[in-house]
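Can anyone check this?
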Amino acid sequence: MDDIQYSLIEEFGLGYKRFGHSDLMGRVVGLMLTEVEPITIDQIAQALSVTRTPVNDVLKRLEAHSLIKRVWIKGNRKHHFTISNEVFHQAGTNLAAQFNENLDISNRYLSRYLIKYKSASGDEKSEIKKICERFISMHEFHKASMDAYESFLIKWKNQETALPSVDELANGEI
């Protein structure tokens, strides 16, 4: 593993950790971004100096979120994995799903507190009103986030086909 690959893997680990995931998950993604051919659990574990069990757990999660895919290689019984061709778009889709889940939570609890608000009086009504205002803010924030992110994903999908080539970037043409 060269210095560039090592640094990238470590930075992905730190990045994933900042988002509440395990650093191993980020390190696996970083490794898979820099591997041209599909790799096995054993190869991943060896490259990252960890045991197979946590790598297997991470691979299951990444596969469930469509960030990696399992590849069958004829004549080889071991499972091989590669990064999804649309890993960044899929990561964005997963984030949009989280916005949607937060929107659902705000809707559920806002509805429940509004029912409680209608039957409350006095100080209790004032307290519940403050809670409702927070859930209204949560709802509007996540609705706006979701709308903006969905627009971004559509724009990205259209732009993705017009990305600059490696040769253009290497030659300073862009």
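Reply from J.R.: I decoded it. The chain has a mean pLDDT of 92.
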